[in-house]
Amino acid sequence: MSRKIIETRLEEHLITEKPYYLASGKEIEIALSAHKNGLPLLLKGPTGCGKTRFMQFLAWKLGRPLITVSCHDDLSTSDLVGRFLIRSGEAVWADGPLTLAVRSGAICYLDEIVEARKDTTVVIHPLADDRRELPVEKLGELLSAPPEFMISVSYNPGYQSVLKDLKPSTRQRFVAISFDYPNPEMEAEIVCKEAGVDKKLADSLVKLAGMTRSLKESGLAEGASTRLLIQTGQLIQDGIDVHTACRAALIEPLSDDPELLAALQEMVSSVF
Amino acid sequence: MKLALFTERFYDLVAPDIPNEWDVEEVLDPLIDESDLVCEAILGHIPVIWPVSHSLCYDFLRLLPKTLQHLSLEQIPHWIGITLDCYETDGLRAAQRFMQDDIENYLKKLKGSGGLPLASIERKLLPYIRGVARNELQLKQGKTCYTDTTSIFVPEELRFSTNNDVNFLLYKLILTFQWGFMACKSFINRAPSGFSHIECDEDTLWIRAYLASFEEPLLARDIFHCLESFRVRIFLTQELPGLMRAAEKHIFPQLLLKSQKHPLNSLQQALIKDEAELFTLLTSNLTDRECEKYISGEASSCDSAEITAKLFRTLFQKDVEYLPIITLPFQGTLKLQAIETAKKIQEQKMGEQFADMMASYLLTLSKKELGELHEQDKRDSGNQGLAESDISMIMDSEFSGNTEQEKDAPILVSINNEQLEMPVELEEFTKSFLDEFGHLPAHFLSSAAGKAGQAMLEQEVSGPADNSTQPKSTLSYDEWDYRRQGYRKSWCSLHFKDLPPIRTQFIQNTLAKYHGLTIRLRHQFEMMRSQERFVKRQREGDDIDFDALVESISDSRAGISSSDRLFIRLKRDERDIAVVFLVDMSNSTAGWVNNALKESLVLMAEAMAVLGDRYAIYGFSGMRRSRCELFHVKHLAEPYGEQVKERISSIVPSEYTRMGPPIRHATELLKDIDAKVRIIITLTDGKPEDYDDYKGKYAIEDTRHALLEAKTADIHPFCITIDHKAREYMKHMYGPANYIFIDNVRKLPQRIPEIYRVLTS
């Protein structure tokens, strides 16, 4: 039975310009090898440390489109796999992002997978082991993933809610790469490059971030991420003075606790 | 007020305690002449002090006539607050002393002497310095400023300026400067190359031995201190320019050195002068090249050591008496002895940890390897088991850490002349130990061997547990022995006890005290309960699910049988959660901690009543494995009523903290409960510890194992602790993100419900 299928423009997902990514370990080699061997990838690490950027870089390097799905608790299986729609009185099938990726041999990246409900995440199981196939029940099709296809998921293990953890049966299918903030020299280089600030300012920002990260046990859930540093740098570059920019883009996003905020402010005034 | 009435009221307030009538009348008698208003006010304070300490309460009453001469009625509650703080931090004696002697001091402070007390800003400064130093430094009060590398000591109050912003800045500068000494590696531990002629034993800081080798060690120390301070100053200017700029503007100008004719004066001056004058100030003592090195920040502590010797030669005059330098307030003093002590404590701690790790590693070695040794030894000496000397261990001494290559070389351990490779974890620990202390004292190795030997001995000797008659309400639980990597079967007896319900004002008082908070919590918890969400694709419901409808129509057009799940229904998310709260009732919780724990339980229970989660509360304590006790406060199915409230009020600190059995019991309980999420929350104030050998690593490992058992049964353990020192082992015991610290006991009641909320939503 032939069906009408809505064509999705795949080229929109193709990354043409080389994304800036500075490797801090062997993560690129591991990911390339995982891709070569058809293995799924699990990226874990704190917020804003470069997981998504890494995926963009990987997709560019492999020359494959990157289809990103930000997971949330309302995400249904149809949202991933696809559904029929009616167009001019006719039922047409629209591929979901996952199906699209399988068909076209793209890279499918499920961001923050723990946010999705567990009954949704099981649809990736057959794709994430050696079967590498996706049953599309409504079409009665069993799609086999081409060698170029890759599935990758990310999550942040720092959450304390017991309800947000990955099921072992899901977890144990992946090649896992653990991400952390880059070392100070590299982080400064990244901030320089991304925010367009000078080396000295970048160094100071990174120093400040290091200070906030060591407060993890003093009540700060997560220290300043590389992303926050870049944003701070961008504000400064735009002519906002350093103290105001740090307050707005680096300190306030971290905490609401007045005493911690005061301590962070003291760090800023010491560094700059 | 009449004495009889006064006494009666007193008894009412302290019930269920029945204090000695003599004591009560003795302290109340001098107060009966006071007006009723005063008497009522006095009585109002009794419930505050009595639960904390009875003798403190008596002292308070005894001293009251004198106190009332100085303080007004309104001032007394604040004064009591400080007394209790004093009791909490320094014990009864200190609190008594404060009450007796310090009223005038207190009044002075109250009037505002213009100073900035450390206590008022400590919570801001501590995270600041920890962030800057990137480690868990402690902040302590001291008469002078110095650091022992684990803590920084600062004065209790600063009155440097009338402007408290400047005082705060000075506090910040003191802390940062003391950290600067650590960051600049001023406290040279081992002899640098070129200085090998000064020898010191392993326990002494090399720099102390070096300074002591001078004819006038105090002068040498002063010179070294000056030079190092200058180095720190330059380092901070580069590292934290903002701070130094502020200091140059607000602090340095006010620091005029008294015109003292000290030869080091110009060096001291250099610390507070701007860059333009630096060179001239330095050249009076140093050569041009040395000055440049210092100003550019390239000098090292070895340079300082070298120049100390040179300067000493020019400055030292035999017949002139030693004249101490006047240090600047932020510079502090150099207390090398304190550093050594702190290092030793640290080394001992890490050494013991090493010995424990080594011992458990030795026990994992094949029985044959050790067994043979054992047999042989038995034959040789008729020894029982492996004594300390039975395993001779030599750590590969090649490691000296001088070159990168050597650093990466594996560390080998030779046991009875046989070379073995260590497991990665142990090896890494050893390396970090060697990095820190430069050597590994032999007694830690022999202690490891000793421990391993002992555990083996126990394995052989320990037969089945004694089958003494046990009361009916007793269960026995296994205990994990990490040394043998196995369970001690039925090792602990857990006795169930009921807490006597006690009718007190505690619950009312707590609810009154936290009235606002209770309302807020109830509201928050209510929001959690009514987590309403639209469930889509239902067979029936309140509204049409448009997505489903479209899909269904498309499906039918496409020729597939379409779904009849076309409705949206508003559904309340069923919270299917069962929780067991285990409350530490060990002796160490006496005082504020116990009170705060109880208050938190009350607030928690009040909020939980809205939520409808099933929960149980048990207290635990006990002494020795034969008598672990579990106190029933509330069972899972029991409703929260008067009885439960009264039992919460009667939670009192009793004995020790053996955490394994109660956790295992809670696991057993929850195993049979059908709930989507099952949680054990432990509220504790410290490490697991019992009277017998249930301490240190053994206790931690057993607790960890009990928690692992819970995890295996799909139960989530979580710990709320107020132990400041807990950081190292908590992660190991509970796993990352499964515990939380609460810095301030007083915040406990507020925080616990919040934590619960975050944990389960």
Taken as a percent bin, the fraction of beta residues of chain A is 15-25%
Helix content of chain B: 40-55%
CATH class of the largest domain in chain A: Alpha Beta
The biggest sheet of chain A, with number of strands, parallel, antiparallel or mixed sense and barrel status, is: 5 strands, parallel
What can be said about this structure in brief?
The complex is a heterodimer of chains A (272) and B (761). Chain A contains eleven helices and nine strands.
Write up this protein:
- The complex is a heterodimer of chains A (272) and B (761).
- By secondary structure, chain A is α/β, with parallel strands linked by helices.
- Chain A contains eleven helices and nine strands.
- In chain A, strands 2-5-8-1-9 form a five-stranded parallel β-sheet.
- Chain B has five domains: 3-111, no CATH class; 129-337, no CATH class; 338-461, no CATH class; 534-572, no CATH class; 577-759, 3-Layer(aba) Sandwich (Rossmann fold).
- Chain B contains 29 helices and 19 strands.
- In chain B, the strands form five sheets. An eight-stranded mixed β-sheet of chain B has the order 9-10-16-15-14-17-18-19. Chain B has a three-stranded mixed β-sheet with strand order 2-4-3, covered by helices on one side.
- In chain B, a hairpin with a 2-residue loop joins strand 7 and strand 8.
- In chain B, helix 4 (54-70) packs across helix 5 (76-101).
Keywords:
heterodimer; A: Rossmann fold; 2 domains; five-stranded parallel beta sheet; 9 strands; about 40% helix; B: alpha/beta; eight-stranded mixed beta sheet; three-stranded mixed beta sheet; about 50% helix
